[in-house]
Amino acid sequence: MIRHFKDTESSDNILDVLETDGAVIVDSLIPPSTAFKISSELRPYLEACPDGLTNFSGESTKRVGALMARSKGCRDLALHPLINKLCAKFLESFSDGYQLNFTQAVEISPSESIQPLHRDRGVWGEYLNRKIETQFSTIWAMTDFTKSNGSTCVVPGSHKWDKDRKPTDKEICFAEMSTGSVLLYGGSILHGGGANITDSEKRLAVLIHYSLSWLRQEENQYLSCPPEIAAELPSELRDLMGYSLVNPILGFFSPYDKKGIELVSPKHIFEQ
Ligand SMILES: O=C(O)CCC(=O)C(=O)O
Ligand SMILES: [Fe+2]
After folding, report:
1. Which of 61, 106, 135 most suits a substitution to test ligand 1, by most atoms within 8 Å of the C-beta?
2. Residue 121's CB: how many other CB atoms inside 10 A?
3. How is the beta sheet containing 153-154 ordered, strand by strand?
4. What is the predicted pLDDT for the residue at 180?
5. Which end of the chain is more exposed for a tag (fewer CB within 10 A), N or C?
6. CA-to-CA distance for 214 and 217, rounded, in angstroms?
7. What is the pTM of this model?
């Protein structure tokens, strides 16, 4: 079972359950009207996007990235205060900070089958000690998520399993939730997009993942949202995207066209 909380629940309680179960849902964190607005910002990109080519990306599934460059509403999701508070606490033992790791709208259409269950930390290979949590991930429901329209499948507790243990059907739960709710999970839990067995319903999600600031970002934010677009964004969001220094010198640059200026923070390019 995936536990559901209201946004009035204490952060400590939400984090306790996240630690124990590996996933939780916060119901109605944004109003449906905000979700519909975000969906309409994303619609032109979804319409122009082909379905995936593999079993993993989904042959009846569309995936659209670069959400910080493309959608004002998704920027607000990335900066949501409760999410950032939970993320900071969830990852604080593993890094001096966290960063935006990945943004993607995922629209699952009828006839899609279940995505192979996986752990998102797999993108960094098998090198990291499993005691290190790599990330804090959010899946925002832009439509209702139901068992039949492709709600994310999650295996509670599997973040603590031996990595080769396979779940039984009974151990797989469905992240059913209403439009505007959000599923929270870490990098180590088994999960995947669900099968869509409806005749005509599409399931739309916005995935925003955060990772330890010393890991390479899965989605290259500097290319998905280059400086000329980032210049228009709130400085807090730019910092989150990696246009900043951490730890304390990670991420510096040396402006190639200026002699005598070295070890500069990326923040500098927005301050001229
Ligand atoms: O769309 C979903 O519900 C989950 C997708 C997912 O886990 C992934 O693509 O890594
Ligand atoms: Fe995933």
Report:
1. 106
2. 21
3. 173-174, 153-154, 191-192
4. 98
5. C
6. 9
7. 0.98
Q: Round to whole Å and give the CA distance between 177 and 27.
A: 7
Q: Among 230, 240, 269, 65, which residue's Cα sits nearest to residue 136?
A: 240
> Which pLDDT does position 62 carry in this prediction?
98
Q: Is the CB of 218 inside a 6 Å radius of any atom of ligand 1?
A: no
> Phi/psi class of residue 112: alpha, beta or left (left: φ > 0; alpha: ψ in -120 to 50)?
beta
The pLDDT value given to residue 74? 99
Neighbours of 195 (CB within 10 A): 20
- The CB of 191 under 6 Å from ligand 1? The reply is yes
CA-to-CA dists, residue 19 to 12, 13, 89, angstroms: 10, 10, 11
| pLDDT under 50: residue ranges of the chain | none
DSSP 8-state assignment for residue 167: P
- What's the rounded Cα separation, in Å, for the pair 27 and 5? 6
For tokens 């228009």, name the residue: 232
Q: Which helix (H) or strand (E) holds 89?
A: helix 81-91
Tell me the β-bridge partners of 141.
205
Structure token pair of residue 21:
């179960």
On the question of a cis peptide bond just before residue 248, with omega within 30 degrees of 0, the verdict is: yes
Planar angle of CA 154, 156, 157, nearest 5 degrees: 140
Among residues 202, 201, 194, 189, the alpha carbon closest in space to that of 175 is found at 194
DSSP type of residue 44 = H
Ligand 1 atom with least separation from CA of 192: 7
Domains of the chain, CATH where assigned? 3-222 (2.60.120.620)
